């Protein structure tokens, strides 16, 4: 009969085995990222920031990433759309600034499962096109069962160099990603597990291009996207007042896979 | 700021809202199912049955399902492959027989997330072909990133009628599906949540065909399937000694979505 | 060395072999079809009807089909969207009425190739969702690389019976599908082959539901759909003045695969 | 009514318009290519080389390509597997050496249609994984409806430099790709169009890695791949006697899109 080992960590299904927990586990991947930040209405955005956090700026950051050469996927690849807001956490023990993850769409299921269950990143599925590139134009489309809900466009204006690149590198080097890990009770309302998790992540930026970016959210009906429409429509309801930053980066992500911790 | 409501149930992301917990929630869907059960080696199969359970028979049941008209997906559809073994649970409080879920592959992410987090069904992703039908032959192929790992074949021999149909109907009417819900600790080995969950499910069989079935597992390397190879290879290592049952059913599944409970 | 056989018919690649030409070849498949016809502006629609044809009515017919149990695909399946207009052909030899095929989208490549090269049906690729069904509502979405360009909705009002069903059955029993087979010259403008092809097709309707239907075309930019935008935008430019017919049918298609002929 | 313009070139559907024929049309794209050549049995390979050609060496070349930044697809991308053999054409007018295209699999339909109809390249559909990269290992899997039929593996041994790189660059700079454009008669055996087409193609190699390569063909049944099984099984029947070359290249393809011509 199967019995889990004390010093192992597991994901469902457990009974086929897990891996020895190693706090030093490093995962690496290549990254091409297109990041667009925009100012929105503070009151509206605060509706989606949980109590205990302070919204540092009325700003939404949307980031497309194509990850390749992902070592834990034996060199496989996937795309994601990360949506976050800058926050300060005022806990009983912990006080820190970070990026609160509103939602992440990914086009492969395996990283969705690990991200949700191990670190509370609210990942869900969408089809995400690889970047279409007609230099200096870059574009991607995000959809669910054929229904477009987000398009991202970027026009590169030039290579970032010198001090600007240094600043950008240090900005991307470590990001305090924060997720809300929530596992519901079985057969009852409320949670069996409800924790905020800090997962420091970072990218070693190798090159970057500045430019102008734009994005468009399209509302969907429940018939078009029965399981995510309210998420998309909440984001679509936040006005894009002005684009604060648009940047395309190439680099390498080096993650301490076991480096997350619950914050209180 | 967002605050969860006491009588609601949520899935990540929480802060865009959830639904009022309603113990009477019913979900319905149409089902076309091809079920093949086979006898295997008891010793080998017991490696994957957790302590606390007794293996009632050295038997593996593999079931393809195509669900359509799924109400919580606004009429959408998906396919799954369910793999289980018949067990008896000897708990401190609960004593019951059921089908222990070894693994479930599904070709859509949304039901994977709910199944894992709400009821501990160990669902993971695969590409699953709709049934190819050249009457009386039926076949499907299951693969991961282009790597075939399971094929199922069925040749119908005739409609099930009379008492045989009645027996089959009552057999499918209620199944004690059991999952192991396991959520790992953050930044440490072991679990924050480790529970066995009983989720009674059933199908109202409307018609059924008996026949001969066969299946073939194909081992994969980590390069071919980095995240599931050990699951597939564990199942492939179980010899198919003889096929015990092969049946194709059409019907309707009516599930008490909130009817699961933790067993102890 | 390879030499084609005189009494064979081939598709590229030729050198791996073809099949003996058999004028009696029958192909069969199951069909679920949702057909919506609408009146539009005659002048605009005539822009897309070639000289030699007369537009019989300013009407566009859009038909979703899900084909299953396709015998030449060994029981496989695919979806299509057929767009046609009612015409009369005034040739030197042939005078006949039929449905001129404006374009067909299919979500599998194999039937696209045969349809284009064997019978001049202008098939191209799109992602086409299986019907989402929340009775009495039916819907599908058609997209290209994540960009929605057509949605079809239907609300069933009741079963078609009696004389109405008989009329509908005979209407679907044989349709004079007409395509324009056009193969360009190599290294020069113009065609090496330019023919109108008549391909009588039909469906044995088994049951039908009448109802109300609607559809919506969405224009796409070249960046969203570089190879089809002008087709979609041409169709989107035709106003939907009124929906003439909306019907959902179940049945079986029996096609004389070699029954097409060039009309002159 | 629609009438084609004399100096235009069209693809089906014709009536929505084509493009002015421009003999100087250049199309460009980025390319990552993994090429593996192997010696096989001359007698067996000659079965698939049409009369009029001489097989120059009993060698099969299999090449994976990932194309990105494809200008005619507005910066989109796709993958292909090209299979060819080295031949000499002995025509009435033309005498030349080239690569006879046995088959090409591509994972997008639009280039399949153009390739077949404009230049006789026998393109068909398959799912082709992007390269999985765990340096120095590279791998891809090719499948049809979940059934694996080709795997390619490469282990890089080092950068190609100096004269070796120059030789490789000139070898890739221009390739006499030859296809057999064949359009069947309608309603009769034989062809309406049967021509050999020369389409000079080339890649500007920017960097290259030599290494060891291997590939494995897997036979499929008609049930697994109803429309291509005989092609795959023909190729699988050719023994891989020894791998002659394995190289991974990065570069840019610059094609004279209208530079093909019929050879006689």
Automatic annotation (TrEMBL), chains A, B, C, D:
Gene3D superfamilies: Acetoacetate decarboxylase-like. InterPro entries: Acetoacetate_decarboxylase (IPR010451), ADC_dom_sf (IPR023375). This is Acetoacetate decarboxylase. It comes from Methanoculleus frigidifontis.
């Amino acid at each position: 009969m199967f019995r889990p080992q004390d010093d192992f960590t597991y994901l469902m299904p457990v009974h086929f085995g897990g891996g020895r927990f190693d706090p030093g586990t490093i995962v690496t991947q290549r990254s091409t990222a297109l990041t667009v930040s925009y100012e929105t209405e503070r009151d509206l955005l605060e509706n989606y920031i949980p109590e205990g956090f302070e919204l540092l700026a009325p700003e939404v950051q949307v980031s497309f990433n194509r990850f390749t050469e992902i070592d834990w996927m034996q060199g496989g690849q996937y795309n994601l759309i990360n949506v976050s807001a800058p926050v300060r956490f005022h806990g009983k023990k912990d006080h820190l600034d970070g990026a609160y993850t509103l939602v992440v769409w990914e086009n492969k299921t395996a990283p969705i499962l690990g991200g949700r269950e191990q670190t509370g990143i609210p990942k869900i599925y969408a089809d995400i096109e690889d970047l279409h590139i007609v230099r200096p134009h870059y574009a991607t489309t995000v959809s669910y069962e054929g229904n477009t809900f987000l398009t991202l466009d970027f026009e590169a204006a030039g290579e970032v160099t010198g001090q600007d690149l240094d600043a950008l590198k240090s900005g991307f080097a470590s990001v305090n990603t924060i997720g809300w890990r929530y596992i519901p009770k079985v057969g009852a309302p409320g949670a069996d597990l409800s924790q905020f998790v800090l997962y420091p992540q970072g990218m070693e930026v190798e090159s970057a291009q500045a430019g102008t970016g734009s994005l468009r959210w399209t509302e969907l009906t429940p018939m078009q996207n029965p399981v995510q429409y309210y998420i998309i429509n909440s984001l679509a309801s936040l006005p894009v007042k002005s684009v604060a930053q648009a940047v395309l980066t190439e680099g390498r992500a080096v993650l301490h896979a076991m480096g997350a911790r619950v914050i209180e």
